[in-house]
Amino acid sequence: MLLATLCYFKFTYGGFCFAIWSYWFLFSPVACLNLCILHTSWFHVQAFPFSTFTFRVLAMLPDVLATAQFVSFFCLQQHGSSRFASTSVVKQSSGGLFGWLLGSKPTQFPALDVPLPGVTIPPPLPDFVEPAKAKVTTLPNGIKIASETSTSPAATVGLYIDCGSMYETPGSSGASHLLERMSFKSTTNRSHLRLVREVESIGGNVSAIATREQMCYTYDAFRAYVPDMVEVLIDSVRNPAFLDWEVKEQLEEMKAEIAEFSANPQGLLLEALHSAGYTGALAKPLVAPEPAIHKLDSGVLKEFVAENYTAPRMVLAASGVEHDVLVSIAEPLLSDLPAVKRPEEPKSVYVGGDYRCQADCQNTHFALAFEVPGGWYEEKTAITVTVLQKLMGGGDWFCTGGVGKGLYSRLSLRILSHYHQIESFSAFNHIHNYSGLFGILATTSPDFASKAVDLAAGELLEVATPGNVTQGQLDRAKRAAKCKVLMDLESRAVACEDIGRQVMTYGEREPIEKFLKDVEAITLNDISSTAKNIISTPLTMASWGDVTNIPTYESVSRKFHSK
C-alpha cells in the first residue's frame, strides 16, 4: 500500500506549519481527533488573524499528535507485537521493504502430520474396539450390581427399585409421586443443604423418576468421584429422614403440579388410558389424585419404603464404571440389607373402556389404544410393536429440525399432509412387563373430531391387513427403530437406565447386537399379524377438551370387532 499524503498549509502572521497526514490515520480514533482539532484551529486562525497565543498552540497540536502516532506505528511494525500475542513456532521473515507496513510473514510451515516440538503423540486407537459387556454380580441378600465400562471420563450410577404406583394401596395412593419429589432431600446422615453442596462440589447431577413399575434414582458426575456418588445415592435411598416440613413443602408443590397437568394433554390421555383400560395394579394413577394428597404424610412414606425398598427388589447399575470397582464400593453399603422374600407382583387385567372429559379447550385431544399382550416378557411382540410404531410414525403438522423426523412415515404422508384440521397425529406404544398399550394420539379441531377418529381407526386397520405395507416402508421403519435405540444409548443416563431395567426384568443385560438382529428379522407378515392380534383386543378410548363430536365408544369399537 502506497503512502498517500494530504498536505495542509496554514499561514498565520506569526509562523508557518506543515503537517503530513497518511490515509491510514483516518482509521484510528486518534486520527479523527487530530482532524477535528486541525480544522477547528484553522478556522480560528483564519477568522481571527490576531488570535491569542492559545489558538497558536492549538494549531500546532495536530502536528505533534500525528508525528507521535506515526513514530509509534513504525516502531510497532519494526519490533513486532510479542507483548500482545504469544510467540509463533513458525519462523518469521522481516517482510522486505514494506514489512513495517504489511507485517512479517512465515517463510516455512510444518506439515500437518508432523508434531510440534515437545508434543508427545498418544498411541493410536485400533480400527475396531470391542464394545464393553455388562457384568452382573448378585450379593448374598439378593441385590444385583451391574455395570458397563466406557471410555468416557464421566459416569452415571443408578439405583433401581422394583416398586411403583402399581404397589400402592388405597391408604398410600400417591406415595410414588411424592417419593419422586422427596428424592435427595434430608437423610439421617446429612441435611438437604449439605447434600446439595456435596453434589455441587463435584459438578454432579442427581435426578429421580417414578413409574408404574419402578423407582429410579440416578447420579451423574466425573468417574473419579464414583465412591462419593455411590455413597450419596445409597444414603438418599436407604436413610431418608422424611422431615415433616419437607414433606409438607413438596405436597404443596404437588398441588400446583396437578393443577397444571391439564397443560399436558398427551400425559393426561396416557393416564386416562390406563385408568379406563385396566383393572387392578396398572389402573392405579401415576400422578397422585388431589384427594389422596390430603392423606399423605411422612408416616405413609416411611411405611411404603419399609415395605417395598427391600434387597431382592434392588439393582445398582452404572455406565462408565469398572465392575470390580463398583462392587467393592457398593457391597459394604448394601450387604446389611435383610434378604426379604420378594412379594408377588400385583395383577392387572386389560378390559378396555372409555374416558371423556369436557374441558375449556379450543381443540379436541383423543386417543385410541389396544393391549400389547405379554409386554416386555413377550420380547418378539414388543420389538415388532417398536418397529410398527416407527412404521406408522406421525407427529405434529409443523415439524422443525432436520432429517429423521418421520416425515416419510405412513401417518405423515397419508394424514398430516392432507388434513390441515389435524394438528398432531402419531402412533405410540407404552409397554410394561406383562402388558402394554399401542395406538394413536391425535389433536384436531372440534368440528373435525369425528372424521379424525375415523381416520385413526382406518390407519390401524390398514397396517393389520396383509399387502398394505410395502417392503420399502418396513425397511425404513427398521432403520428408524435401530437408529433411535443406538442414538439413545449414546447417553450415559439412558445406558445406565437400560442396564438397570433389563437386569431387573430379565436378570441380565442383553447385548445390543441381539436387538439389532431381532429387528432385522421382522417380516411383513410379522407386522400384519402382530397388528391384527393387537386390534383384536378390547378398544380403549380417551378424549379431553371439546369432546362434543367424538363418536360413541360402541360405534368406534364396531369398526374393529364387526365380525
TrEMBL record:
Family named by the database record: Belongs to the peptidase M16 family.
Source species: Triticum turgidum subsp. durum
Primary role: Substrate recognition and binding subunit of the essential mitochondrial processing protease (MPP), which cleaves the mitochondrial sequence off newly imported precursors proteins.
Keyword Zinc-finger: no
Protein's name according to its UniProt entry: Mitochondrial-processing peptidase subunit alpha
Pfam families xrefs: Peptidase_M16, Peptidase_M16_C
Signal peptide residue numbers: none
Record's subcellular location: Membrane; Mitochondrion
Domain Peptidase M16 C-terminal: 299-480
Location, primary (coarse class): membrane
